[in-house]
Amino acid sequence: MDAIGIFDSGYGGLTIFHRIQEALPQYNYIYLGDNARAPYGTRSFEVVYRFTRQAVMSLFDQGCRLIILACNTASAKALRSIQQKDLPLLDASLRVLGVIRPTVEAIDGVSRSKHVGVLATTGTIASESYTLEINRLFPHITVTGEACPMWVPLVENNEFASPGADYFVKKHIRNILAADPAIDTLILGCTHYPLLTDKIRAALPPGVTLLTQGERVAKSLANYLDRHPEINERLAREATRRFLTTESVDKFAEAASAFLHQPIEVEHICIH
Ligand code: DGL
Questions:
Q1: Ligand 1 in contact with 21 (CB < 6 A)?
Q2: Which residues touch 140 (CB under 8 Å, ≥6 apart)?
Q3: Candidates 64, 71, 148, 270; catalytic one
Q4: Best residue among 35, 146, 191, 259 to mutate for probing ligand 1, ranked by most atoms within 8 Å of CB
Q5: pLDDT tens, 32-74?
């Protein structure tokens, strides 16, 4: 029986995993964080694709046939190539899903001004994945992106609550609202950013809604499993969790508690 694989460049995907395991606690999960090579957000398309592909292969080897890329940068830069180039050459039962589509599906109902902002890594913004995906579903929505290259390092280095983080949070909120003052909805388009939510909310003027991804991705996964009974019935239901990192297990275990609010055991893995 299969586990569900969850992948991120580092800790950020834990914000998604946290919501997924709340919504669907019965399944077995394997989380893989490529912390040794994080952040991905400033890396080229080729490198993000290569690293993500290696992680996905490694999760397939661990017994996952359904994998969620709980990373916007990997979803933006690697998902399509993996789905179109790699999976057809492998086993037809393998599935890899991303986090951008489920996030985008929700926005039309949330934004009244139909002006939406996306806060994400440099790579996600440069890929224009959000703009393309939003305008494919909702051509009447105006999208403005803002790359926040310091936000992931602040989270990866456990500095997200520090006074230093205020400066970088305020700077990017100011930039995006200056670029389009009609924005009434901001997407947190990076799975690391929910740890900065308090600071982001404090920097926002009233009337701007902040859209996080965890619950939406969890709901979309539940829906996907309902629509695909052939995948659902292969999934093990022993509620086991494994956490794999390419970096130090102690560091991961300590940092992960800020995301999951519970102690965990972590295993080291090499991927290449
Ligand atoms: N958490 C990831 C995302 O959602 C990427 C962070 C990074 O490695 O730069 O984009």
A1: no
A2: 114
A3: 71
A4: 191
A5: 999 999 999 999 999 999 999 999 999 999 999 999 999 999 9
